[in-house]
Amino acid sequence: MNPLPLIPTPPSQRRKDFRLQRIPIIVFALAAVAIFIMWTQNLAPTTFTGEVESIQENVASWLPGQLADLRVELFQTVRAGDVVARVITTDPKVLESSLAVIRAEVELLKTEMAPILNQHRDAVNYEQLRLSWLVQRVDLASARVRLEFANSELERVKRLYDEKIVAQGAPIGGGRSDFGYDVALRDRDALRTEVDERQKLVSEMELKLRDLKLPQHWENAQTNSPAISAAIAVQDEKLRLTEAQLTPLTLKAPMDGTVNKVYRRNGETIVSGEPIFSISSPRSQHIIGYLRQPLAFEPKVGDLVRVYARRPHRTAATAKVLQVGAQMELLTAPLRLRGSVPAMDRGLPVLLDLPVGLNVRPGELVDLVIRPGS
């Protein structure tokens, strides 16, 4: 059986099929290619992410020492000028050695004055009373050193006692009983009593020295010689210096805010400039945004930016560009972690003022839409 001959398709029908089936596909492909080229070469988003500036300050000691009295806790609110910590800046062994040297030199002066005890007894007694006053001040300073560290030890043991780590009067490790709460309290009270009594004695001797008057002229000038007076004056200044080192360094809060990190605790040794804790301000004045590449335009000072807060009820306000950075910088950690951007991405930093009435916290991320030339 012979096959049937093919029926030829009219050219008009072929043109119609091509127009209905092929042309839409070709147009779509050309449009997609054009959009891709325009997007990669000419277009860039005007929306970018910003972070509300966080204002933080570290509290540190400008002298090394031992942290003795930390008065803040995590997330505690402080005000500028509040006393937040004390630092003992001098090793007690060094203080004890300095006091021992002063005590020895004072005893040496007393020995050198012994041969003239029978001459001008009043002058010698006056100088000896001054030397005895110096000895009592040395003993008072030594007692203050021991009292300061007894207070620190009592605070440490009391904290352990309050946290139920040790029982009252129980030994703390190694079978020792001389660090129990009762013993620490007893030692502190005993040293406090000793300091009070020595302070009274020093004050009484000082009053006696003020009331005692020396005659204007002496037959033997050696008893009131410049050498002896200068030596006593030197010891007096040494003792004043040691007494000044006894006073702990007082640290104050530099601004109003909330304690957001605590790096050191009572009893720890700190170095000069090492942060003890940091304070964060509850308010901010600026927003820092980063324009990522490719840059569709160059932002200028005075451009208006629409700020959108990331809240359930999305609020918006208008900010103004205050400054524009000079170079591309690495995005901050919050933007890299929470902004869904590459880990090593860079952007052009832009400083904005924080609009009044926009309820955002320091460190919060916001969405920014810039309006160039506005």
Structural features, described:
The chain is of the alpha+beta class and about 375 residues long. The chain folds into 3 domains: about 45-55 and about 280-370, Efflux pump adaptor protein, beta barrel domain (Elongation Factor Tu (Ef-tu), domain 3, Beta Barrel); about 55-85 and about 250-280, OB fold (Dihydrolipoamide Acetyltransferase, E2P), CATH 2.40.50; about 90-215 and about 225-245, no CATH class. The protein contains 6 helices and 15 strands. It has helices spanning about 10-40, 90-110, 120-160, 180-210, 225-245, 335-340; strands spanning about 45-50, 55-60, 65, 75-80, 85-90, 250, 255-260, 270, 275-280, 285-290, 305-310, 315-325, 330, 345-355, 365-370. The strands form 3 sheets. Strands 1-10-14-12-11-15 form a 6-stranded antiparallel barrel. A hairpin with a 6-residue loop joins β11 (about 305-310) and β12. α3 (about 120-160) runs parallel beside α5. The longest helix has about 40 residues, at about 120-160. The radius of gyration is 40 Å and the shape is rod-shaped. It starts with 10 loop residues before the first helix and ends with a strand.
Distance between the termini: 83 Å
- State Rg: 40 Å
**Could you give the order of strands across the largest sheet?**
1-10-14-12-11-15
The structural class is: alpha+beta
The low-confidence parts are 170-178, 217-223
Query: What order do the helices and strands follow?
Result: HEEEEEHHHHEEEEEEEEHEE
